[in-house]
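Z., the sequence and structure:
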Amino acid sequence: MAQTTKPPIFDTIDLEREIEEEFRKRPQERESVPSDFAPLSVRAPDMAMPDYVEHRDGATEIGRLSAEAVVREYEAAAKDIEALGQELVENVKHCEAMNRDSLVVIEELKETAERYRKEARRVFLQIENYSLVMAEVRKNCAEMREKIAAPAPEETTPEKTELPAAQQG
């Protein structure tokens, strides 16, 4: 009969023991504390407390911290509002500049429109003058055609009248 060999169980147990011993040999690292996981804004506020508030004597530590946190949030919001105001001032300055530029452009447009009107008047008068000249040319041509087309009047010879003897020569 063929014998089957089973892997010895003791080998895997020995491996686990070796790993456990290695961990024990390593130097102990400090354990993590809950403050390691707190957001930075809670552990170390980035803003100093504003000048317009100060703690009262006798306030508890929790009360002081809560009041500081709230006033910092309000102060941060106030600074954001001021920044928005500055941005608005910049936008107003930009609008005023655009307004000034627009007024200059409007004046230029008025001048251009006036030049167009003057040019239109000049062209209008020129066309009418040409029209009058053409009408006169057509009239003269019609008169000339009539003269050319009309039969020539028969010339009558004046009767011979006797000239005085002194003129006969």
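The mean pLDDT is 82. The radius of gyration is 58 Å.

Let me know what you think.
H.
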